[in-house]
Amino acid sequence: MAIKFSVSARKNPRDPNSDYKYYPQPQSSGESDFKSLARKIQRNTGQNYPDVVGVLAALEDILPEELQQGLIVRFGALGSFYTTFKTTPSDTPEAVSSKNIEELRIRFRPDADLLSRVNTESAFEKVEGLATGEEEDDGEEAPTL
Asked: How far apart are CA 33 and CA 131, in angstroms?
């Protein structure tokens, strides 16, 4: 199955007088949820469904705990989860405190092999009319594709 994409018309945000440029934009083909992943894991491993669900549910509980301890959580050939901050600056190093942390963010960094595999084994399919751009600040509407 191919990854679907549409065409998006965008202007350079730093140059509002620029012409539109056209970019491919990925389009979702749906979702793969917890139960469907558990069924696929069951089929591929021979484990029974309740055991697979139990392991995945435990992972849902354990992952936040590990991240709250400041750990990088590595999932072998999948990649790593880690935390970053959204912060505000202070004028001096002494003034920096936990109050400068506005938000804790969770990031995922795919493993190089996973990224390479997805990049080399993916096919793409152009779909029409899903992303036509948005109205710009100058009130000019993006061209209809």
From this structure: 25
Structure confidence by residue, pLDDT tens digits, 56-89: 999 999 999 999 999 999 999 999 999 999 999 9
Report the C-alpha gap between 41 and 110 in whole angstroms.
20
Question: From start to end of the chain, where are the E strands?
Answer: 3-10, 21-27, 73-74, 79-87, 101-110, 124-126
Whether the model pTM is above 0.90? no
Q: Is 9 exposed, middle or buried (0-12, 13-18, 19+ CB in 10 A)?
A: buried
Which of 93-128 are b and which e, b meaning 16 or more Cβ less than 10 Å from the residue's Cβ? eeeeeeeeeeeeeeeeeeeeeeeeeeeeeeeeeeee
Per residue in 87-126, pLDDT (tens digit) is 999 999 999 999 999 999 999 999 999 999 999 999 999 9
C-alpha dist (Å) from residue 127 to 1, 21, 32, 122: 14, 18, 21, 16
For residue 68, give Cα distances in angstroms to 58, 82, 85, 86.
16, 10, 12, 16
The single-letter DSSP state of residue 31 is -
Instruction: Please state the length of the chain.
Output: 145
